[in-house]
Task: inverse folding
């Protein structure tokens, strides 16, 4: 079987198929297409999100708080669903904050991280009484000034750029020079300054990376995060109330990837919790996850418009593409392009199979949803499904490119 094959893909082992049609969210895909009113679209399965949170909670020590990082999937209906499952939300912009507030979340459960928060966004955050993860000394000054103007004592946490990195991560967010957070060695001085300001110190936010499938790398980063937090807590102006340890939990995207094994992460956290609570008796320990909570709960669906053979290679040309799903095209953080798990949704097993490439309607060779993959033989009208599309899908894609209409979204 070629390396492009998805038959052995971890994600495809447990899909449900009836009459060779994919069952999604308990319903035949063709019915979902009818409900949405046609292709292309993203569909998210609320049950899959609930199950994921349940599995995590069962595995992790009970004192760990789970936050949802909204940028993974900010669809309001998804956010509304997640609010009832998790202990808090992390927003990365004023726009995300507006969605969060709009879904009725209580402000003390929302934190706001991100470099380059504008005065307008900070003023909105101050007014909303959420926790601001401060990413620089000058941002601290701006938060203090805006809080004074508003007559509000804003809750702040210090986002730390740690002196280590999360090894073998999809995206490195820490270690070395970074635009995120305040360098660990500068944090004691910032805490001294914070003491003189009329702000409520909450604790630390230490996020070191994303999309990691190696438990030992995640454990190592969590241990170092805990040690760093304990060191920094000695300089805290008041008792540390929260430690946001970031996330980094990955999902299997490509052939050969396996699901993240949680047991060793849970064991490591169980050992860290008493150490952290010993040094910081009031501390609430938070994991903030985006992709891991929603990534596997979503599919992207488009329809074959044309089937053509060019010099022996089959191309299925669809009404969807990189303008809707940049990540599946391989242009969002991948170094070497690999195929996401893809099937023909109305002919999943398909007795007749062939090697085909799935492309979109854009005039660029980058618009590739599957590159020479083994698929059921498909023709115009058939449905193409891209799995692992619940996170960093629609909102991480250049929808304006070539002026096609945006895809719809549905939560089932
Ligand atoms: C992006 C981001 C996350 C979510 O990362 P995932 O890989 O989706 O879990 C969490 N926290 C911060 C600060 C982020 O920037």
Result:
């Amino acid at each position: 079987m070629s390396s492009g094959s998805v038959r052995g893909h971890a994600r495809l082992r447990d899909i449900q198929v009836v009459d060779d049609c994919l069952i999604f969210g308990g319903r035949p895909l063709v019915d979902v297409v009818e409900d949405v009113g046609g292709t292309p679209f993203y569909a998210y399965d609320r049950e899959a999100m609930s199950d994921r949170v349940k599995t995590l909670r069962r595995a992790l020590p009970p004192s760990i708080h789970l936050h949802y990082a909204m940028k993974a999937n900010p669809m309001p209906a998804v956010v509304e669903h997640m609010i009832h499952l998790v202990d808090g939300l992390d927003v990365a912009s004023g726009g995300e904050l507006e969605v969060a507030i709009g879904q009725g979340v209580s402000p003390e459960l929302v934190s706001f991280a991100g470099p380059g928060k504008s005065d307008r966004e900070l003023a909105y955050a101050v007014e909303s009484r959420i926790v601001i993860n401060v990413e620089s000394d000058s941002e601290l000054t701006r938060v203090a000034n805006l809080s004074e103007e508003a007559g509000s004592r804003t809750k702040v946490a210090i986002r730390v750029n740690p002196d280590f990195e999360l090894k073998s991560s999809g995206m490195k967010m820490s270690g070395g020079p970074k635009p995120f957070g305040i360098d660990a060695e500068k944090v004691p001085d910032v805490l001294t300054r914070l003491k003189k300001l009329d702000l409520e110190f909450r604790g630390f936010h230490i996020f070191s990376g994303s999309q990691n499938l190696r438990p030992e790398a995640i454990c190592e980063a969590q241990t170092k995060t805990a040690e760093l937090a304990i060191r920094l807590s000695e300089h805290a102006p008041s008792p540390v109330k929260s430690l946001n340890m970031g996330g980094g939990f990955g999902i299997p995207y490509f052939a050969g990837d396996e699901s993240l094994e949680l047991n060793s992460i849970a064991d490591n956290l169980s050992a860290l919790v008493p150490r952290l609570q010993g040094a910081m008796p009031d501390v609430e320990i938070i994991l903030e996850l985006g992709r891991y909570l929603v990534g596997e709960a979503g599919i992207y669906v488009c329809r074959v418009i044309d089937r053509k053979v060019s010099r022996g290679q089959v191309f299925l040309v669809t009404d969807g593409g990189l303008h809707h799903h940049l990540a599946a095209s391989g242009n969002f953080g991948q170094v070497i392009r690999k195929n996401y798990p893809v099937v023909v949704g109305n002919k999943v097993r398909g007795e007749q199979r062939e090697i085909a490439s799935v492309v979109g309607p854009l005039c660029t060779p980058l618009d590739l949803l599957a590159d020479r993959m083994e698929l059921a033989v498909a023709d115009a009208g058939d449905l193409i499904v891209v799995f692992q599309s619940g996170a960093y899908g629609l909102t991480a894609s250049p929808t304006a490119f070539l002026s096609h209409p945006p895809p719809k979204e549905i939560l089932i």
Q: What stands out?
A: The pocket of pyridoxal-5'-phosphate is lined by residues 69, 71-72, 90, 92, 113, 207, 210-211, 246-247, 288-292, 391 (CB under 6 Å). The chain has a mean pLDDT of 95. The first strand starts at residue 16 and ends at 18.
